[in-house]
Design brief:
The complex is a heterodimer of chains A (about 110) and B (about 575). Chain A is mainly α and about 110 residues long. Chain A is built from four helices and no strands. With about 575 residues, chain B is mostly helical. Chain B has one domain (about 135-495, about 505-585). Helices cover about 70% and strands about 0% of the residues of chain B. Chain B is built from 21 helices and two strands. In chain B, helix 3 runs antiparallel to helix 17 (about 465-475), helix 4 packs parallel to helix 10 (about 245-270) and helix 5 (about 135-150) packs antiparallel against helix 10. Chain B is globular, with a radius of gyration of 23 Å. Chain B starts with 8 loop residues before the first helix and ends with a helix. Classes of the chains: A mainly alpha (about 110), B mainly alpha (about 575). Chains A and B meet through helix 1, helix 2, helix 3 and helix 4 of A and helix 5, helix 6 and helix 21 of B.
């Protein structure tokens, strides 16, 4: 695993966290959360990558030929499903909040908080 | 023999029943979802109990899909039922049973969604305890989390939605850190099964990658376990969730993060020689700060559920202290304290639910004297407050002894002091609230007046006795410490300890029964003094009240301001905590 995936992972994670901390809107903040999550996709896929290897499906070529690690691909798939569920739930919550408060700006929400 | 087939049952059965409930919810008459959910919970607990006995002799192992290990290397995903995991499953089911009885008939309006979510929640927790695979652990962690997010925002009130969003965002960051950690560990070790991980780590020399993996996994679990500075989401979420859900949140969900961390530390990281002195001290320090901060914050709340939420933070810090000693006694103390606190805190959240349903409020100052007609609830609340003070009897007292015994002299003897301070603050806060609500004391409010509050009520259609008796039973359970508890605990922790620490040849007990912690006697008097100070401030000399307020209020206000309710601040704190942890682990 060369340096490039590490840089991409760190960049995505830090950019996502920075975006969350400085966000001006809950929907934007949820988008930044997804950015943090994408860092995990890159990390996992890079972890299983073998240079010059094929897909881990031994239908046309015999078992034993070089293939990328199927375990991490299963992990990424699960991760995507979970991420989808969480993002959908968060957006639904944000929508309901907007219906009741008329705003999704953290500063305005905070002003009414106390 | 049925035994080998039992392990997946407490997970598969609630999930199947939840799916069926959802499919037929529109045709089921009113009490059916309540009865079915209760039945599934009791059965899941029963299966865990049935596995506990055999597990004390040898852990039960189940490989899904028949993927048994080849040449000693695990290639499938397994459930591994060791005594602590089975016992945890039983405890989870007990608490869910109490919560479902408490909420009987409350959630009949929407197609049994509440019951479906609760069963998902239950299955996720038991799966989290039984699994023996790091990624599978993450999946159950997510099942728990998603069910919990949905249950928090269930009532769709403004504060519930805000609390649920904060909860979801902070915990999702925890999940992604956990997952990234799993990726790093997998890169280095190439395995996910706990035993294979441990073996792999013994052989490989840990480098930055593996170590980074530990830090991220541990941080994910510490966020779930709400340790300072990862704790901010908890008070927002627990304060707004429906009260039967808060019973589960505070009673077991938070503690489960600590259980997972303890399992990983003891069975994977510790044998691999990864937990350096620096890391242990860092965790111990984090636990102590959490105990102190949770206690101080609990004292300055007026929203009863928020008050209890901060008390949960403080008591979960106790669990981390028990873990961070890395002694068998500390681990045993973690288990005992976890169960004792879960029972007491569950009962206290039920009492706040009773106030919401019968008195239509949750604000301590607004409810002053309003509790008189339901005085039995007041007695139960006072009993819960006394138990939180950590007197040396009952499960919490026992756990306290086990946790503090190995640490009496470390860090300059600060640990017993911190424990008493946290217990006194949380118990004092609960006793103050009980005195104000049920006796009408305390016409003049102190610092708690500045705490955030909320207009909230729950449906008043259940008789008082129905809501009160699960709370009373939980309180009574927390008082029972059977004879032979030490022998049982020895059996419980034995499976997690590294083989070299077991003295199998002589049969001598490895777990010393600790002496009573003499400091524990100070908890209750201190709690009573704190409660009396706030309730009697109009009678006390003004100079005295002014002096005490001048000493404590600046600190309390600073802490209140830090708990801003703004999720961006929480993310920043979590990032700060992660960075500190990473630096400490790599020194």
């Amino acid at each position: 695993m060369n340096l490039l995936p590490w840089i991409v992972v760190a960049w995505l994670m830090l950019a996502g966290l920075y975006g969350m901390i400085t966000s001006g809107n809950i929907v934007h903040l949820i988008g930044c959360l997804s950015t943090v999550q994408s860092a995990t996709y890159v990390l996992l896929l890079a972890a299983g990558y073998r240079h010059g290897a094929g897909a881990p499906i031994f239908y046309t070529h015999p078992p034993g030929t070089p293939a990328v690690d199927p375990v991490v691909q299963a992990l990424v798939l699960t991760d995507i499903v979970i991420g989808g569920a969480v993002t959908a739930l968060l957006l639904a919550l944000a929508l309901q909040l907007h219906k009741r408060r008329g705003s999704l700006k953290p500063d305005e929400l905070r002003a009414l908080h106390r | 023999m049925m035994l080998p087939l039992l392990p997946p049952l407490p997970v598969v059965m609630p999930l199947t029943i939840a799916a069926l409930l959802l499919a037929f919810s529109h045709v089921l008459p009113r009490p059916v979802p309540d009865a079915v959910a209760l039945f599934a919970t009791v059965m899941a607990g029963g299966v865990c109990l049935a596995m506990l006995g055999p597990a004390l002799h040898a852990p039960l192992v189940y490989w899904f899909g028949g993927w048994v290990p080849r040449h000693g290397f695990p290639i499938g995903i397994g459930f591994y039922v060791d005594p602590p995991s089975a016992a945890m499953g039983v405890f989870i089911a007990v608490l869910f049973t109490a919560a479902l009885v408490f909420s009987w008939g409350y959630y009949d309006e929407v197609h049994a969604h509440f019951h479906v979510l609760m069963l998902l929640f239950l299955a996720g927790m038991i799966g989290f305890c039984l699994t023996h695979d790091l990624f599978d652990m993450f999946v159950w962690f997510e099942v728990i989390s998603v069910a919990a997010y949905a249950l928090t925002g269930y009532q769709l009130r403004v504060s519930a939605l805000e609390g649920a969003i904060n909860f979801t965002i902070v915990n999702s960051i925890g999940s992604y850190l956990f997952l990234a950690g799993i990726g790093l560990v997998y890169i280095r070790i190439g395995a996910l099964d706990f035993s294979a991980l441990e073996q792999g780590m013994r052989q490989a020399t840990p480098d930055m990658v593996a170590r980074g993996g530990f830090v991220l996994v541990a941080t994910g679990l510490l966020i779930k376990a709400a340790q300072v500075p990862f704790h901010f989401w908890l008070s927002d979420a627990h304060a707004v969730a429906p009260s039967p859900v808060s019973v589960i949140f505070s009673g077991v969900m938070v503690a489960l993060g600590m259980f997972g961390l303890a399992k990983l530390c003891w069975t994977v990281f510790l044998p691999a020689g990864e937990l350096t002195q620096g890391v242990r001290h860092f965790l111990l320090g984090m636990g102590i700060v959490t105990v102190l901060l949770g206690g101080l914050m609990a004292l300055s709340q007026r929203h009863l559920k928020r008050l209890l939420a901060f008390s949960t933070i403080s008591h979960t810090g106790m669990l981390l202290i028990g873990l961070a000693s890395f002694r068998p006694q500390g681990l045993a103390g973690l288990f005992v304290y976890l169960v004792g606190h879960g029972l007491v805190k569950g009962a206290l959240f039920m009492i706040s639910g009773i106030l919401l349903a019968t008195r239509g409020g949750i604000d301590e100052l607004g409810l002053r004297g309003a509790g008189r007609p339901i005085w039995p609830a007041g007695l139960a609340m006072a009993a819960g407050g006394v138990l939180l003070a950590g007197l040396p009897f009952g499960l919490m007292g026992q756990g306290d002894d086990y946790i503090s015994a190995p640490l009496r002299h470390s860090l300059g003897g600060i640990v017993p002091f911190a424990i008493v301070f946290g217990a006194a603050c949380t118990a004092g806060a609960v006793l103050r609230a009980a005195g104000r609500i049920f006796l009408g004391l305390g016409p003049v409010a102190g610092e708690e007046e500045r705490g955030p509050t909320d207009e909230e009520a729950e449906k008043a259609d259940r008789p008082l006795w129905l809501m009160l008796w699960p709370a009373v039973i939980l309180l009574l359970l927390s008082l029972i410490v059977p004879n032979g508890a030490n022998a049982f605990l020895t059996g419980l922790v034995r499976d997690w300890l590294p083989p070299e620490s077991a003295n199998l040849t002589t049969g001598a007990p490895m777990l010393q029964k600790p002496p009573h912690d003499p400091a524990a006697w100070f908890g209750l008097p201190a709690a009573l003094a704190l409660a009396a100070f706030d309730l009697m401030r109009h009678r006390l000399p003004a100079w005295f009240v002014g002096m005490v307020d001048k000493m404590k209020n600046p600190l309390l206000r600073y802490l209140q301001a830090a708990h801003s309710g703004d999720v961006r601040d929480y993310v920043a704190w979590a990032a700060f905590g992660l960075a500190t942890f990473a630096v400490v682990w790599n020194i």
